[in-house]
Each structure stands twice: as C-alpha cells, then as structure tokens.
Amino acid sequence: MPELPEVEALAADLGERLIGRTIRRVQIAEVAALKTFDPPVDALEHAVITGTGRRGKHLVIDVERDEEPRHLHLVLHLARSGWVRWRAEAPKPTTGRGRGPLAARVVLERPDGDEGVGGDGFDVTEQATQKRLAIHVVAHPDQVLSIATLGPEPLDASFTEERFAQILAHAGRAQIKGVLRDQQRIAGIGNAYSDEILHAARMSPFHPASMPPDDVHRLYASLQKVLGDAVERAHGVKASSLKSEKRQGMRVHGRKGEACPVCGDTVRQVIYADSTFEYCATCQTGGKPLADRVLSRLGVRR
After folding, report:
1. Fewer C-beta neighbours within 10 Å, C or N terminus of the chain?
2. 169-192 per-position pLDDT tens digit
3. What is the CATH T-level fold of the domain 4-148, as seen in this structure?
C-alpha cells in the first residue's frame, strides 16, 4: 500500500506534470471506485489543475473552474494495490467496464490549446482482486470521511513527543502495531512503515501502546527518523519508480527469511487476515517468535 512517503512523492511528481494543465475528460472504468455523485465527474472537464497534495494516504488534486463551484478536488485513496500511471500520449477510449486494473482515466488537453485531440494524462489502476480504491470529487477534501477523521500528520511540527505520548496513553492496552496503523490516531502510516518503525525502536508489535516515557521517547525518535528518511529517499523519484524505491528501503518489511541488517537473525513473518507483517525476534521480542493468532485482535482502521 502506498503510504505517507510514497504519496507525498507521487503528489510532487504529478504536480510538476499537471499544474496549469486543463482536464479534457475523466472516464470512470470501475464504477464501484467512485464514491461521490455530486458534483459529477463531468464537472472536472475543462477545469484547470491548480495543485497537488497529500492528506494522510490520500492524493488530492485541486482544480479551478469557470462556473460554481469554482474550486473542486479530485481525491484518490489508492488502498493496497492502487497507483497512478502517467501516459505520454492520448489513450484510446476504453470500450467496456469490468474487473481489469483500470479504475479511472484522466486525459488532458494539449498544452498548445488544441482541443481537437486529447493529449497526455494518467490512469488510476488497481492490481487486486478485491477492489478497494476510492475516488471522490468534492468541494473540499474534508468532505471525504476518511480525511475528516484523520489523526495528526506525524512529520508536522505540531506532532511533538508529548502529543505522541498522549495518543499512546489514550490507546491504553491496544497493541502498538495497530495503533501506529490507525489513521484516526496518526495519519499516513501503514503496514510497511509500522514494521520499520517498530524494528528501529527494537519493540514488539504486540507491545501495549501505553508505555513508560523512555519507551515513548525511543519509539517517537524511530518514527521520526524512519518516515523522515523515507520521505528524503522518495524526494524527486518519478512515480514509475516509487514502488521499487520503497521496497529497496525496507529493512524487515517484505524480507521474510532474509538476515536482519542489525543482528543477522532471520526475519520472521506473521500472517493475519489478508495481510502480513515482518519482524526480527532477536531485536524486538527477546528472541521469542510471535504467534500468528495474536494479530487477529489487532484493530486497524483504514
């Protein structure tokens, strides 16, 4: 799943390509992905793109129109397997709707102003059997419920260690892995970076969220460093390379069976529901392997 660093880099990459461009048409190929109906998708036609940004794990594209409402936002939640793929040429219109990877297609007007033929643009795709990608057209991003209920951004200056400690204390005995992933507590962290943060902090995924100040300090420092380093690595990386860059930067996530880069022990995996996580027993659990069944109790909100 694209998380805070990848979505931020994706927004920056698209901003260089999109800002100032005019939308010719938006075609929805996966009807279930569109979560709003008013304003309609057609309202984006002939709108000028004025900005791109991120809210949690949501990609937000701002547009301006000649009619009311003048300002609209195309909001994409890419879920686990969604992505945005740039197209250098105008694609042929899709002829059918189905369960293929294409969820939506945005075609831009040609930069020279010639509206006779559509120009370049991007596709929103989802390579998964279970379709969870969400597309919203709204007058304000906060009209998207999953944005309105987001917790604080972990790299904002206002996200202090004291605020982090308050979040953990409020979560009580909840397992820390689930708390870090809970978007209503902290925005933008998913399965991969929660694995990396906990490994850097040498902390078990099952550790209770309420913890002594020394543990809070260690976990907060790890969170800041892991996310900050990931944002720096992703800065300037083109959208087509962001997924591979993310994989290369992982120390334990997705590396089952490989050697831990810190202690050399074998990275282990726990499977729960339809997901997994990875950890190092030597670094994080005192050498004790974790039982898979424990994570069935992890409460994680999208």
Report:
1. C
2. 999 999 999 999 999 999 999 999
3. N-terminal domain of MutM-like DNA repair proteins (3.20.190)
